[in-house]
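Homework help board

Subject: predicted structure for assignment chain

Our instructor gave us this sequence and asked us to write out the predicted structure in token form, then describe one feature. I got the tokens but I'm not sure how to describe them. Can anyone check?
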Amino acid sequence: SIEAARNALARAGHVDPALIRAVWVGSESHPYAVKPTSTILAEAIGATPYVQAGDWEFACKAGTEALQAALGFVGSGMGRYALAVGADTAQGRPGDALEYTAASGGAAFIVGPAEEALAVVEGSLSYVTDTPDFWRRAYQRYPSHGGRFTGEPAYFKHITGAARALMEALGTTPADYDYAVFHQPNVKFPQTVARQLGFRPEQIQAGLLVDRIGNTYAGSSLVGLTAVLDGARPGQRILLVSFGSGAGSDAISLRTTKAVLERQGRAPATQDYIARRTVIDYGLYVRFRGKLLM
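My token output:
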């Protein structure tokens, strides 16, 4: 969260952290049960003390929940800038299928006036139902999930529902977008939902990172968006659709501005982070994650 936020500030360039009026962090792996991650982040970037801080939870769409709230906060005039973060450390019981794509990562976005932005939001929409496909009760160390149930009645229903409704409201079609980014718990799901919606493989390629970095949960779709913005050109349209178990999706339509080109080189690109990764074996992963309890 801290490094992503500092990269966002570097790209913004002119934004004084003291003028950020909200710092919101979406995650399902907050380090404390009682003590906000957001205050740690706000202090680290110099946004304290006159700032609203809060932690968000909605499984893997907690990050886009924070982004949606930041858009409303700035749009209402309550503050000139707000910081929204989606970051996570994947959780999974030893031997569970969740470990196949276990990862850690995050992305941060500063929301501010449209005239200063590298991308403007054309519209957003959320689609939510009570669908218990993935959960973790209090005092449980690892989450439980419904296996195949996480696909058809959960992931696909909510992403297609949100994406279609937003495009209908905006009067757009998949052909109007240069890029699309969907939540990526694995490679198959986003490829399948893109095909169901009518997007071509090349429209999702730039933001499809799960085969190289794994599933970063609340950071998943947002990290994909950062990879797209690293190579986007002015005037290009991007459709972002997250998914969080429980279940729901946030769909956001963006269009890049002329500012995107000058901002791209001000901080490391997402692909730079991927290129410097170090591959570790399962034994080291288990030790790092503290999964061996004595």
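Reply (TA_rk): Your tokens look well-formed. For the description, you could write something like this. The mean pLDDT is 94. That's the kind of observation they're looking for.
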